[in-house]
Amino acid sequence: MSDIPEGTPKPEQLAQIRYKPPRRGWMDKPVELKKGTYCYSARSKFMEYLNLPNAREWNPTEGDWKLPADWKQTILDGMRERLTRFRSFRLFMDICVRCGACADKCHFFIGSGDPKNMPVLRAELLRSVYRNDFTAAGKILGRIAGARELTVDVLKEWYYYFYQCTECRRCSVYCPYGIDTAEITMLGRELLNLVGLNIGWTIEPCANCFRTGNHLGVQPHGFKDSIDFAVDELEEITGVRVEAPINKKGAEILFIAPSADYFASPHYYTLLGYLALFHEIGLDYTWSTYASEGGNFGLFTSHEMIKRLNAKMYAEAKRLGVKWILGGECGHMWRVVHQYMDTMNGPADFLEQPVSPVTGTRFENAKSTKMVHITEFTSDLIKNNKLKLDPSRNDHWRTTFHDSCNPARALGLFEEPRYVIKSVCNNFFEMPPNTIREHTFCCGSGAGLGNDENFEMRMRGGLPRANAVKYVNEKHDVNILLCICAIDKATLPVLMQYWVPGVEVGGIHEMVANALVMKGETKRETDMRGQPLNNAEEKEHV
Amino acid sequence: MGALVSFFAVVVLVAIVFVGVEAANLRYLFGVIIPYAALITFIAGFIYRIVIWARSPVPFRITTTCGQQKSHPWIKNDILDNPHSTIGVIGRMLLEVLLFRSLFRNTRLELRNGPKLAYEWEKWLWLAGLVFHWSFLVILVRHLRFFTEPVPVLIQALEGLDAFFQIGLPALYLSDAVILAAVTYLFLRRVLIPEIRYISLAADYFPLFLIFGLVLSGVLMRYFVRVDVVAIKELAMGLVAFRPSVPEGINVLFYIHLFLVSVLFAYFPFSKLMHLGGVFLSPTRNLANNNRMERHTNPWNYPVKVHTYEEYEDEFRDKMKAAGLPLEKE
Fold first, then answer.
1. Where are the beta strands (DSSP E) in A396-503?
2. Which residue range forms the structural domain that includes residue A147?
3. Which of these three, A140, A168, A197, is where a domain ends?
4. Which residues 250-309 on chain B approach chain A with CB closer than 8 angstroms?
5. B41 at A interface, C-beta within 8 A
6. Which residue of A130, A292, A385, A465 shows the fewest CB atoms closer than 10 Å?
7. Which residues are listed as membrane-spanning (chain B) (predicted)?
8. Assigned CATH topology for domain B2-322
9. ipTM field
10. Cβ B292–A369 below 8 Å, yes or no?
11. How many CB pairs (< 8 A) connect A and B?
């Protein structure tokens, strides 16, 4: 867990937000890369590993970005190609009426007041160039038609603002035409990629994932150590020794979780939850070291990179001969699995329609992609009374649930996680309606922006989420924010520390593990975090 | 700046037709040639734009889900905000097109001390947008009485409904009052709300001024300035029958009205007004969220360089062996 970097403004200072835009128009205002609000560039060795164009060492704060000589033509050609490949792109360039309904829906605008963080203006950064080079009106009328020439300054502006969007898609919920800024940001980033303008925080994980199978660069033996360690720890807590098969051929189910689950905290407690649950129901499953990453930072890089990284899931399922795939608690992973995987790397005709081996439930909604979300799986177990649960073991937690952007707005996974939480926790409180479900606010650090150099912007972007947590913290003494996303688990703790001290962050299957009464278990002295259960009451009043 | 440019553009348009009719007597040009040309431009341009959009494929099913997905039978699926079937998609699109469902979700942000964020009730944009579009449609349909003989009962009924309150003589059409109010609101919010002013282009003000001028000239003709309605209908019927003629004695106000309509029609396909056609094609709205149930195909899905398991095992074989992990090749 990262701490608050030195020099970060205090929350009181950050909360002084001015929403009034400057008097002069936005088109000629060059971008200013302020410390704490932009991302560092990608290292050339990772770019080279992935065969990405214009690999070099460069620094965004220096004047010379070391662009290739024909950078402008490359970008314009790239735009032309994407306009013919993506109806969304051409349509979203054409039909915006600038009604402004999206303006105050973006967490980065809410937290920064920077007008270029209004989704409409973020898109106009690209649209202005589109009009200039691809529309008759723009070619004839120029500025009057809202057109402007692509210059290095415009490119720098793109870099700053397309890496100041977390692709959360909240704005697209409110847009009368469904214009999706995530789509625009994704394509904007693809264009930047063509001339080598990548950020470190997306390219390094991509390169790691390509090579080792996961973003963190954990090698197979390290993966095994991690899982073995978790098995030991789970035994210490529960007294039950579980098995955690790895790369096992012929298992029924391949389980894929985000790599942070086995390497970071508080993700780790969720990992203990998976292990306990799978043992308890006697699941015939396997982990994979080759496909040891649920997440996909390709989503934050380019469509091609999504496909390159995602290919591992089906390839590994095929190699191991499993029947279907179960996926862990991760946000953007589920956008990729749900909306891209089958199209890019399917059809998965070598797999079978997922059926729960415990309840016999056929997962009709996953019959083509053949991958089931862990909360879909667990809610079905609970509904069918297959788990013995003691929710009072979570009584020291007063919980609320953060809908992660992608499961919310790309799937509509709302009730399954809530059903599980309510089954394993006695204290659950919803945040205000405008901040949950399809209206949910991003953690402010998704889409590759969760790095330390971008800390101030993350705290700004996370303000709306934190503010809603603060509301339930003050009203209901909520002390843990549950979520089903690894980026959330990595970045919400410090967001809480900054805006709402005293609120912890956890996963749903951590709560499941706490409540799960296992056969042959010893008396539970602590929860998954090692906090003594008897002293829970005391802790609450610290 | 954009507002001024647009305002003067509309003033110039009015001046052109005024001079053209009053000084140069170009009645046939403004009464027949330009309206025909505008209509052709509208139809051809509209189709052209739709074809351009339609030619680009939808490579991925990127539905924005705004309600509960369909998963377990015991969890209620929100069929309109997160449809998984064609019927649901049709329902979602109808709500979107006819009632502006998404805009209805609008809220207004307020930052209070604390800091405390509040999301306030804000349906005015939705309301103004909705009544603007609906009254525009009513007015358009009402105008069919100039192009039909006898006037169909439905159009007469619509007129009767529109003039339901029987205020004044001739009776005031509700749609006229509503559209003027709505256009005024939409304009004022554009200039008065700083964020909206900041994002507004000339292309945002121009249609507002144009439509305002259009409605104003129509209102003047109906309620304030005597015009020869019989002659106007004769001209309109001539246009419809492709036997155009320009009767004498039609007030210049009519030519202003007709010219502004012509400009609107001709301008339409090249502007943001194409959202009329575009809204139907928006992939975040018009696709069912059945992604994991039915495979969506991408016509340009091309092979990419991947890192195969074999390459992976080749690199890590010794470490895997030492850790006791199963291998393909010993």
1. 399-402, 480-483
2. 13-30+53-197
3. A197
4. 270-272, 274-275, 278-279, 281-285, 289-298, 300-301, 304-309
5. no
6. A385
7. 33-52, 124-144, 164-188, 208-225, 252-270
8. Fumarate Reductase Cytochrome B subunit (1.20.950)
9. 0.96
10. yes
11. 309
